[in-house]
Specification:
By secondary structure, the protein is of the alpha/beta class. It has a single domain (3-212), classed as 3-Layer(aba) Sandwich (Rossmann fold), CATH 3.40.50. 38% of the residues lie in helices and 11% in strands. The chain contains 7 helices and 5 strands; from the N terminus they run βαβαβααβαβαα. The chain has a 5-stranded parallel β-sheet, sandwiched between helices. The relative contact order is 0.18.
């Protein structure tokens, strides 16, 4: 049996990545989610559970990493830092969580080694990497080498990033083709029951749906 650990935030990208692992690449899924004190923690967890269930996951693992909130420095975890609403700006945005994907992938590697999984899937998109350094293809490749160096000789874990070179509209199209339950995904950086529609993540998502020619099934407070 081929097994893959899929890091699933509850967002559209990670949901599609896990569906590719299961329905295109033929892996049985170990669904992994992290609660790290993010403003949308409750909503993301709710979405993760629905996605993991739809995948008929072999195992569902939910881990609390609230030390990330204690480190601080991000609008996603610090109530004192406002989520930007004025559009995407150059440079590393204040929504960057320091080395978050590095932390997540290190833990996923430990779980994969313990479970005898051959792969880890993560839905990073290099479209985001101009702002988030831990979403780049080069970062993933270097971390894969580090994981190989730091695990048992017989352990071989591939880090797979099926979306890394896709645009948001391509992600929407692929997700629709694979019947990903997009109504059960959440991308907004805010903690509201409805997506704000104006944060960077909402803007990227809405633009992707618009260009792809599909309607986003989740509710929004504002449509810019």
């Amino acid at each position: 049996m081929k097994k893959a650990v899929c890091i699933i935030s509850g967002g559209m990208d990670s949901a599609l990545s896990s569906y590719i692992a299961k329905f295109r690449d033929g892996y049985e899924i170990i669904a992994l989610h992290f609660n790290y004190g993010q403003k949308t923690e409750k909503k993301e967890l709710e979405c993760f559970k629905k996605i993991a269930n739809s995948l008929k996951s072999l195992r569902v693992v939910e881990l609390d990493l609230h030390f990330i909130k204690e480190i601080g420095g991000s609008a996603l975890t610090d109530q004192a830092i406002e989520v930007p609403k004025s559009g995407i700006e150059p440079g590393v945005p204040v929504t960057y969580v320091p080395f978050r994907n590095g932390i997540f992938l290190s833990i996923a590697a430990a779980l994969a080694e313990k479970e005898g999984a051959q792969a880890i899937y993560i839905g990073v998109v290099e479209e985001d990497s101009s702002g988030y350094p831990d979403c780049s293809d080069s970062f993933i490749q270097k971390l894969e080498s580090a994981i190989d160096e730091g695990t048992k000789p017989e352990t071989k874990i591939e880090l797979i990033t099926p979306l890394v070179h896709l645009r948001k509209e391509e992600i929407v199209g692929e997700a629709t083709a694979l019947n990903v339950p997009l109504s059960d995904t959440w991308s907004c950086y805010e903690s509201s029951d409805e997506a704000c529609g104006v944060c960077d993540s909402c803007r990227l998502r809405l633009k992707g749906f618009e260009i792809a020619g599909f309607s986003d099934p989740i509710p929004y407070e504002n449509l810019h």
